[in-house]
């Protein structure tokens, strides 16, 4: 799987390095799915953007994304799928308000678009 998403690159036999995957490898809806799945499991529907970037089992850390790439994904989701997340940047408290509550609906939407 690491090679499929270009998360791990084999330098030489048995030696790997982590790499930030190109955007074309992870669709924004898959990124959104990862957030919503985590939120549902932890019953937390408002997340600081910084936590999405660095939190365990969240896309920033899981997919080895830079903070800039996480911001880009969040903005893309917010602009193209406003019913999934809302971004609040009030008084320096940057957070994501998760509006979609069912991860399986995000996957269903992804597969419908992929047809």
| Count of separate structural domains | 1
Give the percentage of residues in beta strands.
15-25%
Order of helices and strands: HEEHEHHHEEH
Named CATH topology: Arc Repressor Mutant, subunit A
Measured as a percent range, the helix fraction is 40-55%
Query: Strand pairing plus helix content: what structural class?
Result: alpha+beta
Q: In the CATH classification, which architecture applies?
A: Orthogonal Bundle
Shape: globular
Radius of gyration, whole Å: 15 Å
CATH class category: Mainly Alpha
Outline the low-pLDDT stretches.
none
Across the major sheet, the strand order is: 3-5-4
The CATH superfamily appears as DNA replication factor Cdt1, C-terminal WH domain
What characterizes the major β-sheet?
3 strands, antiparallel
Supply the number of helical segments. Answer: 6
Quick one: how many beta strands?
A: 5
**Termini, distance in Å?**
22 Å
Average of the residue pLDDT scores = 88
